[in-house]
Structure formats: structure tokens, C-alpha cells
Design brief:
By secondary structure, this protein is an all-alpha fold. The chain has a domain of 192 residues. It is 75% helix and 0% strand. It is globular.
Length: 451
């Protein structure tokens, strides 16, 4: 029976990964429907007297509809705070963005640069970090690339350099607790996203420094290749939003600082910080209800899609994890891994995360691969927090060189760089940042079970 349950789990997760990789449906639909099929198989198998409930150790040792309902409720309950964090963080940053808050900062920075190649590459990294505060790769590329591309072209700098710097800075910034990968990992590992981020912060700080160092190195390369010239005639502006409202820039800045400070302090729930920030920012910038509604409506699409995905993930967690199927899957893999090599699993996961990003999309990596890794490593006594830190940091670095991440394709399209050329130029730099951050995390005692 254990083998049957293990195979059922692998087939179910494998089907989800297949559907996501082949772009057959949305993640939420894949999670819900595959989980439904697995639940039906469990119910029918127990109805036929195969003793599934007893093997899984569920209450009453029988898989009934009530047992399945309770599993689903437990799974959904485990992701509600994470879903709330994502929705309200997106709404908060969308209000600031619509008001022109980030546009003003970027225009100020663009207006200060000269034809100095070093200034331009460093500014690219800084802009990518600022624009990526909302956690959206697509919006970051839409802000940074159109603003900087004319400058790179005028000075004879390679467009692939622009993409490389953006991908490095955005990948490190993506570790933020409202970033998609961190939220996914937190929901799977049953951790608080904000607490997970607190442990990642030192490594994220190093990653940002490495992104700036990379920007300087890229500038040096471009100068050696003959880049240079002047910026006469280049428009240094970012298009203003139709909801542009510049009156409260300094107040908006204060609100952002307060929200981030309270978030870092960690006393209040992370989603509550953004609830308050969103409410104050919306009321301040758009007191007119009709305009405020338009701003919220514009931002709601992406927020609702991720909310639906997380709810679907909750059902998946309920059926696969809360039922005990994940434990059976982990045990079956465990039987194949010699005990003397079990300690190497976290290291293998960290080193292969960047190459795997080229194959697995974010959802399939965190919802398909991560649960299995957690099941196996827990049997070797590895803390799930360590695995979450390793997988979030290492995978995040590679997010925007992955061909299965839609934002990457958007960035390549905006910069007019072929995806293969982007990967060829960026892969080893990004992998290097990932490995350096992991090694730092080990020696700093953040992930003591890496080696």
C-alpha cells in the first residue's frame, strides 16, 4: 500500500509539472483538478477495502468525504496569510506606482547621469532594484528597459548587458516576502513568509552588493569593447501614468519607509502592514472614490490570479501533504539514498537550482519539486527552514534568465535580445552569485546544514 500511495503522489505531482511546463492550463486549475482526481482515487480505493486510510493514519483510519473535506480545509488554512500578504502588497505598490512615485525617482536618477559607462550600468542595477519593489518582473522590465535601452544603444553598449544587469538585480530583489517564489516556498514549507525573509536578509544584502559589483564589471567589459559617446538627443524620461499624482511624493515615501520598517521589525503580521499601507496610500492619493476604484481595478488582475493560485496550492497541500502522501513519497526516495550521502542533498539542491530554473517554471519548482525534497531531507534530520532558504535564494537568482518565466520573454522582447543569447550571456554570472550567497549563508550560520 505504501508503494501505491507513493506512486500515486509521484504521478500526481508529475502530471502537475507536465501541465505547467507544457503551458496546458493555469497553475490553479492544475492544482485543483489533479488534487481532485487523487482524492477520488483515495476515496474509491478505501471504499473497495484497500485500507488506504489506515496506511495514511487519518482520523478513523477511513478515507471519507468528511476526512477529505477536513484535509482540504487544513491545506487552504495554511496558505491564507500568505495569500493576503501577496494581494495587499501588490495593491499597495500599485497605488504608489500609479501616483508616479517610482517614476519621479527614476526620472531624477536618469537626469543625473552622464555618458560615464560605470554610472549607467550602476544606475541600471539601482533602477531594477527600485522598480522591483512590487515583486513584478514584467512591470520592472517595462520600466527599466524602455528608459535605458536608448542610452545603451547611443553609447554602443550591448543590449545583452542591460538584460544581464536587470536579471541579476531583480533575481536578488525577488527574495522579498511578497515576491512570488518566497510566498510559494513559505506556503509549501508551512512557514511565515516574513520570518523566512528575515533569515534571508543577510544573503539578500550580499546578493545586492554582488549585483552592483557585476554592474561595474560589465561596464569595464563594455569600455574594453569600445563603448562610449554622448547622450545628446536621448530622451531621459519614463512615461507617466494616467493616474499620475505628484502632490504627495514625500508623504508616500514616508509611508513606504514606515511599512518596510514595521515589516522588518516583525511584530505585526506582514499582511496587516500592507493592509494599513494600502488603505492610507489609497485614501491619500485618490480621495475621489471613482478614481480610486479605477486604480484598484487596474491592479487587481495580477493580485487575484496569484490569490487563486495560492488557494489552489492550499488544496494541493491538503490532499498531498496533510494526508501523508508526501511522507510516503519521501520514504520511497529515502530507500534509494544511502545514509552516508543524505547530508549532501541540501548542497545538491543549492548547486542545481539555477540549472533547474531553465527547465522548471516557478510553480512547478516550488509546488512539484520542493515538497519531495522536504520529505526526503526531513528524514535525514534537515530542518525544513534550511531547505526553504536554499531553494528560495538559489532559485530566485535565476528567475529572470529562465525561458519558462513569462517576464523573461517580455524582457528579451523589449531589449530585442534572443532568449538563447540572454541565457548564454547571463547564466554563469547568475549561477556564480547564487553559489557565493549560499556559501556565505553557510559560513554565517544561516544555513548550517548546507554541507
Amino acid at each position: 500500500m505504501d508503494l501505491f500511495l507513493s506512486l500515486l503522489g509521484f504521478v500526481g505531482l508529475g502530471l502537475i509539472v507536465y501541465l505547467l511546463l507544457k503551458d496546458k492550463t493555469t497553475p490553479a486549475i492544475a492544482f485543483i483538478l489533479v488534487s481532485l482526481v487523487v482524492a477520488i482515487i483515495l476515496f474509491v480505493a478505501d471504499l473497495c477495502g484497500f485500507g488506504v486510510g489506515k496506511a495514511l493514519g487519518v482520523k478513523g483510519e477511513v478515507i471519507t468525504l468528511k476526512v477529505l473535506a477536513d484535509l482540504i480545509k487544513d491545506g487552504v488554512k495554511s496558505v491564507t496569510s500568505t495569500a493576503a500578504l501577496f494581494v495587499f502588497s501588490i495593491l499597495f505598490f500599485s497605488v504608489l506606482s500609479a501616483s508616479g512615485f517610482f517614476t519621479r525617482i527614476i526620472n531624477f536618477l536618469l537626469g543625473k547621469i552622464s555618458a560615464n559607462i560605470y554610472q549607467i550600468t550602476i544606475l541600471t542595477a539601482v533602477m531594477a532594484c527600485l522598480a522591483h519593489l512590487d515583486g513584478s518582473g514584467a512591470s520592472t522590465f517595462l520600466i527599466v528597459i524602455p528608459a535605458m535601452l536608448p542610452i545603451y544603444e547611443r553609447l554602443g553598449m550591448r543590449k545583452s548587458s542591460l538584460l544581464l544587469i536587470c536579471a541579476a538585480a531583480m533575481g536578488v530583489m525577488n527574495v522579498l516576502p511578497w515576491g512570488g517564489p518566497t510566498l510559494r516556498a513559505a506556503s509549501v514549507a508551512k512557514l511565515d513568509a516574513n520570518e523566512l525573509w528575515h533569515q534571508l536578509m543577510p544573503m539578500q544584502g550580499l546578493g545586492l552588493v554582488l549585483a552592483l559589483v557585476l554592474a561595474i564589471w560589465v561596464a569595464r567589459q563594455e569600455i574594453k569593447l569600445g563603448a562610449g559617446g554622448n547622450l545628446a538627443g536621448v530622451k531621459l524620461n519614463v512615461e507617466k501614468s494616467e493616474f499620475h499624482n505628484d502632490k504627495f511624493f514625500w508623504v508616500n515615501l514616508l509611508i513606504l519607509i514606515v511599512v518596510l520598517a514595521v515589516l522588518v521589525e516583525g511584530t505585526l503580521p506582514s499582511y496587516f502592514c500592507f493592509m494599513i499601507g494600502f488603505s492610507v496610500a489609497l485614501l491619500l492619493n485618490y480621495p475621489n472614490l471613482k478614481i480610486a476604484k479605477k486604480v484598484v481595478d487596474k491592479a487587481s488582475g495580477g493580485a487575484i490570479m496569484m490569490y487563486i493560485t495560492l488557494m489552489g496550492a492550499g488544496i494541493l497541500i491538503g490532499i498531498f501533504d496533510k494526508s501523508g502522501i508526501m511522507n510516503k513519497m519521501g520514504a520511497s526516495i529515502l530507500a534509494l539514498v544511502p545514509n552516508e550521502y543524505g547530508f549532501l542533498i541540501p548542497l545538491a539542491v543549492g548547486l542545481t537550482a539555477v540549472p533547474m530554473a531553465l527547465i522548471f517554471c516557478t510553480d512547478s519548482y516550488f509546488y512539484g519539486v520542493m515538497p519531495i525534497v522536504l520529505s526526503v531531507t526531513q528524514a535525514f534530520g534537515v530542518d525544513p527552514v534550511n531547505i526553504a532558504i536554499i531553494m528560495v535564494l538559489a532559485r530566485n537568482c535565476a528567475t529572470f534568465i529562465s525561458p519558462v518565466v513569462p517576464a523573461t520573454l517580455l524582457g528579451c522582447g523589449l531589449a530585442d535580445v534572443a532568449i538563447k543569447d540572454h541565457i548564454k550571456r547571463s547564466f554563469f554570472y547568475i549561477w556564480g552569485i547564487s553559489i557565493i550567497c549560499l556559501i556565505f549563508g553557510y559560513f554565517a550560520g544561516i544555513i548550517p546544514q548546507l554541507f
